[in-house]
Amino acid sequence: MSTPNAILQIDGQTIELPTMQGSLGPDVIDTRTLGGQGYFTYDPGFLSTASCSSNITYIDGDEGLLYHRGYPIEQLAEQSDFLETAYLLWHGELPNGDQKRDFDNMVSHHSMLHDQMLSLFKGFRRDAHPMAVMVSIIGAMAAFYPESADVDDPHQREISMFRLLAKVPTVAAWSYKYNKGEPFIYPQNHMSYAENFLHMLHANPCETYTPNPVLARALDRIFILHADHEQNASTSTVRMAGSSYANPFACIAAGTACLWGPLHGGANESALAMLAEIGDVSRIGEFVDRAKDKTSGFRLMGFGHRVYKNMDPRAAIMRQTCHEVLDELGLHDDPLFKMALKLEQIALEDEYFIEKKLYPNVDFYSGIVLRALGIPTSMFTAIFALARTAGWIAQWNEMIVSPGHKIARPRQLYTGSQRREFAPVEQR
Ligand code: ACO
């Protein structure tokens, strides 16, 4: 069905712009020809700009819906597993039994790092943040797999995608082991993706470590919930970097760097730190008041989202996972979890948060679950990066093969000096 043109009237000129209709969501005004007519659109932070078209993920922020390839996140979190979700993001359909086995097998057989990478780890300070290490090591993989630069070759793209999905957990776990001064634990092919990650994180060569299946399932669910989220900052960074046909490992390193920030992937670490700082249920009111006071510069971490103006569907699943994990570990009375529930209740009833449509996001609860899994806070963003790698590579691949591909090159509203003449230093 064709959609009506948009009419822009400016300075006596009438410009007609076509509109486009997706399979779900609002129509968009196609402004691609506007530049040729002497105007650019101004939208810092992409508040109203679709930077690409994509078949992968759909979000309705007002209704609190998240679909991957049409499947609601609730169904995937309940019935799928992370690698199957990665397959879905990547291929567009759920795998049959054979495809699932082959995919899992490929991932587990690419999880070892090139042995020379050990020297890279050893070049870092012991206290290096795991995200700093991850950005570097993931980027450095480009040097180990130079053939991956041939992004036109579907085989090279596919093998790079498997390598990324398979090796990023090893990089993340080893960045932590290096912090601790413990020996690196090699991946185990007979374990599931989440079990293997827990094993690489918590095992040591001196004793047997068997991952708890309930906790491994909870971690796998965290991976599913973070796997993709359409054109968020880090995914857009990956697409932007990849738009020049840069090496895929370098592109994923760029996405990892973007995710590191506290307004994005760093939020669960900050949310947990905030709960610890609040310290007691009696002080929640004081912190809520600070968050409402614009002059304080303080925000309730784990609240608010650029797209969701309703409950983040992932937050509800994460709250449930939190119950399951704390029950399994006999930590029902965990003071941080109790405080989180109370803070959520108070904020959801507060006029300021209601009016601004600020709801808990996925990171509000994920920190509590990760902490209960014995994962240190410094690793929280690394785990987010590990999971988001599935979405990044799917989005990167979609961009590379999309017809009419263009390098990403935004324009600007220039507000600097007009032309002036250079004066030699002695005349200034
Ligand atoms: N606490 C208090 N006030 C808030 C909060 C918050 N957590 N979040 C937004 N607001 C207020 C802002 O002050 C602003 O008020 P104003 O309209 O009176 O100026 C209004 O709500 C809109 O906020 P913006 O920052 O303009 O919204 P934006 O969409 O740009 O930002 C963001 C979204 C960055 C997530 C923001 O809500 C925030 O900083 N939250 C805390 C950090 C966080 O939890 N990040 C995780 C994001 S989810 C993820 O990455 C998986």
How would you sum up this structure, described in words?
- There is one protein chain.
- By secondary structure, this protein is mainly α.
- Helices cover 50% and strands 6% of the residues.
- It has 17 helices and seven strands.
- The protein has helices at 73-79, 82-91, 97-108, 117-122, 130-144, 154-180, 193-202, 213-225, 233-242, 248-259, 267-278, 284-292, 313-328, 335-349, 351-355, 362-372, 380-401; strands at 6-10, 13-17, 19-20, 28-29, 57-60, 65-68, 71-72.
- A hairpin with a 7-residue loop joins strand 3 (19-20) and strand 4 (28-29).
- Helix 6 (154-180) runs parallel beside helix 7.
- The mean pLDDT is 94.
What would the keywords be for this entry?
428 residues; mainly alpha; 3-stranded antiparallel β-sheet; two-stranded antiparallel ribbon; 50% helix; globular; binds acetyl coenzyme *A
Q: Which secondary-structure class do the elements indicate?
A: mainly alpha
Provide the low-confidence segments as ranges.
none
- Small ligands present: acetyl coenzyme *A
Number of helices: 17
Q: What percent strand? A: 5-15%
Separation of the first and last Cα atoms: 64 Å
Instruction: Estimate the global geometry from the Cα principal axes.
Output: globular
How many beta-strand runs? Answer: 7
Average pLDDT metric:
94
What is the helix content?
A: 40-55%
| Strand neighbour order, sheet with most strands | 5-6-7
